[in-house]
Amino acid sequence: xxxxxxxxxxxxxFMLLAQLVLLGFNLLxxxxxxxxxxxxxxxAIPVLMAGIVMIxxxxxxxxxxxxxxxxxxxxxxxxxxxxxxxxDQLARVPVPPPW
Length: 99
Known about the structure:
The chain is mostly helical. It has one domain (3-91). It is 78% helix and 0% strand. It is built from three helices and no strands. It has helices at 3-31, 37-57, 65-91. The termini are far apart.
């Protein structure tokens, strides 16, 4: 193996490690008693994971403007859906059971 092959293998390894660390944070936040912050973490962590995939795996740095714009619009649409989900979760009032 030459140096270029080893250097080319570092980026996917880094991406995998970053995704696994974020997955671990997601699992920890699911089992920790965070209250309303659980929803915030449940949305923020996948946003970071999607950002890692968009920047490095999709090679958006080297793509043309149309491809970047399409990816940005898809991400913006997802952000609107995530914001609506967050607003719905934070607006709910806990109702105690009748018994």
